[in-house]
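pls design
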């Protein structure tokens, strides 16, 4: 587990993740610092909640092995029940944040908010189908994402019974089509096409193709970011060792 750390108003704040998601972690820290800069806001309490992108984040006080206090960032636990359970492992929240930020940036569109709890109308038959599409319409009410998930080239599209559909919170895509999480902040009118768990096409409300990164491009970028992060870690270790050596020589 990788530890990210920042000082906010003199307090040590830490985040734990399984991948070197430095940019996403930095965005969380910067937002916490901005909020805490307001005199009327105290973020250092167990009741603090910050909505950021797709997830919610919380702070909880801890002590390290030497008894020094620090505050840990918690988030919704998507492996259990995100409505009731929090976790110190922010990996999934940061990964989805990265995915969604990248998607809207590469497509060159303005994001439209969607959280893990917002519902998606899902055709049950499409859950395990290889070729599916998603289409975002205007949300009918609060808590509705506006997204529909259905079969591509569905021969019975006009004849489905209401019982063929299920409204489910968006985080359920972790279970059967995790790549769909990538497009959830794309604007109304967007259509995304998937073959299994691979995004194959993306268009806007005027049927204009939108850019998106391929799996191979994302892998190359991830490898590059990991290499850069590991180089920074090695540099920090070398600096710490040099500092310790200087103290011994004094």
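designed seq:
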């Amino acid at each position: 587990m990788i530890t990210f750390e920042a000082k906010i108003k003199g307090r040590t704040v830490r985040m734990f993740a399984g991948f070197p998601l430095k940019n996403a972690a930095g965005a969380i820290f910067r937002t916490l610092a901005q909020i805490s800069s307001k005199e009327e806001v105290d973020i250092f309490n167990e009741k603090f909640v910050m909505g950021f992108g797709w997830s919610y984040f919380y702070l909880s006080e801890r002590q390290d092995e030497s008894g020094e206090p620090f505050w840990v960032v918690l988030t919704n636990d998507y492996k259990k029940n995100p409505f009731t359970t929090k976790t110190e492992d922010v990996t999934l929240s940061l990964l989805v944040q990265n995915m969604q930020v990248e998607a809207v940036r590469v497509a060159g569109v303005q994001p439209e908010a969607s959280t893990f709890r917002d519902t998606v109308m899902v055709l049950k038959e499409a859950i395990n189908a290889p070729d599916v599409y998603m289409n975002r319409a205007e949300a009918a009410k609060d808590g509705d994402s506006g997204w529909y998930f259905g079969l591509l080239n569905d021969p019975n599209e006009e004849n489905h019974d209401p019982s063929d559909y299920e409204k489910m919170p968006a985080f359920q895509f972790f279970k059967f089509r995790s790549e769909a999480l990538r497009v959830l902040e794309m604007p109304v009118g967007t259509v995304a096409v998937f073959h299994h768990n691979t995004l194959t096409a993306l268009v806007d409300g005027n049927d204009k193709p939108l850019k998106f990164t391929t799996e191979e491009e994302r892998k190359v970028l991830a490898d590059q970011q990991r290499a850069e992060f590991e180089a920074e870690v090695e540099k920090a270790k070398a600096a710490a060792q040099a500092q310790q050596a200087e103290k011994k020589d004094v």
